[in-house]
């Protein structure tokens, strides 16, 4: 799974640079985003292997870890770590969705009902406008939509429903607009390598 994520992270960035829709500097974000993920997977693998040693100390540690994981919150956090749902790139501060993979929410659009991930299938940046606060941006697919359902999300819980969300081609949230499009052009420049 990590190899696929690495390839997709680099792939969409390479595609934008080769197509001339992003500056070369976008490629420099690959290491900053993916190296910590790889290091974390290595640490988790080492811990998992260490917990399999057949000695009394490791048995005691394994029992303690199992006891700690009996609580709902601890189990949810551990499951999120294993699945990668807790991954959040450092794409800014503010709304808890920033830097996280956008959940596959049900959406209502002018073309009917759809889901977020189906709108990402062409591997292009996507601007979901829930409150008509944005304008079309060059090279970014803009969809006016309504969210059908609660914004109770894995790992982070219930969040304030945004007015608009900019998604990178890998589905990570690059910008969240709450009442207006302030900061959108800067987010496009910074996180998609565009001119802003």
Give a short overview.
Helix content is 39%, strand content 16%. The chain has 196 residues and is an alpha+beta fold.
H-E string: HHHHEEHEEEEEEH
CATH-scheme architecture of the largest domain: 3-Layer(aba) Sandwich
Number of domains: 2
Mean pLDDT rating: 90
Beginning-to-end CA distance, first to last residue = 32 Å
Radius of gyration: 19 Å
Structural class: alpha+beta
**Low-confidence parts:** none
Strand content: 15-25%
List the total number of helices: 6
In one word, what is the shape?
globular
Spatial strand arrangement across the major sheet: 2-1-4-3-7-8
3D architecture notes:
With 196 residues, the chain is an alpha+beta fold. It has 2 domains: 2-83, no CATH class; 106-192, Glutaredoxin, CATH 3.40.30. Helix content is 39%, strand content 16%. The chain contains 6 helices and 8 strands; from the N terminus they run H-H-H-H-E-E-H-E-E-E-E-E-E-H. A 6-stranded mixed β-sheet has the order 2-1-4-3-7-8. A two-stranded antiparallel sheet has the order 5-6. A hairpin with a 5-residue loop joins strand 7 (164-167) and strand 8 (173-177). Helix 1 (2-18) runs antiparallel to helix 2 (29-50). The mean pLDDT is 90.
